Amino acid sequence: MSAATINPHEAAHFGALAADWWDPHGSSAMLHRLNPVRLAYIREQIDAHWHVDARERHPLAGKRALDVGCGAGLLCEPLARMGAAVTGVDAAPENIAAAKDHAAGQGLAISYFAGELADLPNPFDTNGEGKGQFDLVTSMEVIEHVADPAAFVSELAARLAPDGLMILSTPNRTIASKLLLVEAAERVGAVPRGTHDWNQFLKPDELAGLLDKAGLEVIDRTGLAPSAAGGFKLGGSEALNYLMTARWADK
Questions:
Q1: pTM, to two decimals
Q2: Which of 64, 116, 168, 221 falls 20 to 30 Å from 73 in CA-CA distance?
């Protein structure tokens, strides 16, 4: 039996935010500010991995993408617009309901599933190697909220195609993140209270170790930090947050 990765308390917390997930000034405002920067990184990695021209409008045409911990679809929708057949999975049924409604309003055909990733129907494991057929697997700001990070990474890996690409982002466990992402951000209302448990944050080497145990190798890593203009930027310090890209390790 697969290990449970959903933390019911975390699912309830984020499910309660579903109604205004798509409001750029609501409780998910920080995610709206993060999303363009994360998308830029994802596009950069897609182009490098599959040798896609940066001018191509649909770099994921003909590919399957899986976003785990998708919330109300903030990342799923742009992935669909890049041409992918997208599946979104989230622990909170309220988020999935909001995601379906929003996608329908945008005319986007996205498959959504509420529950454990291990219970997602049709894992597409047809190669006999325990590998799935999702070309791109993403999970943004999620692993710090799950009950069992190692089991979670293992489930992500089980859905990744042999030539697939996995991209994760998560806060770093540093004094800076404790002061700014948890204490200060929640105090001023930048993120809802109770969103983060600093003790659950993973350092980059810890996340890389989990990926290695799952048979993956890290091929890129970059910091995600506040910019002077008030948004966020890639590169530089990893003290607050970072993104990591992995693929199957060579045998």
A1: 0.92
A2: 221
